[in-house]
Amino acid sequence: MHKLTSYPITIDNFSFDITNDPKVQKIYGEIAGNCEYLRQMYLKTKDKTYWRALVQILPEGWNQKRTWTANYQTLQGIYQWRWNHKLEEWHDFCHIIRELPYGEELICRRTFKELNKVN
Hints:
Blueprint: H1 22-45, H2 48-57, H3 72-82, H4 88-99, H5 103-108, H6 112-115
Helix pairs in contact: 1-2, 3-4
């Protein structure tokens, strides 16, 4: 959010589902255009009202960079609960988990029963 006004806001700054519906594509473009308008107005006037409006209307599809720390045990739980999730993003994340060093052996090969076995 600290870099929100540092560069132009385009459709590439969002993760929207791919669609062939022209009306939906138009809506996506309008969202990006309206956000860019607010950014431009903030830069021109330095009025924080425009910045606040921009922050408040950003959709969930806005791409953000984050730093996150986890260990293999945490990833194991995430993988077991999300590998078959309906959101494609979880499938992408599970693929990344599998690609980690020893990810396949330490995280992905254990079954749900093995994870919950009491020793």
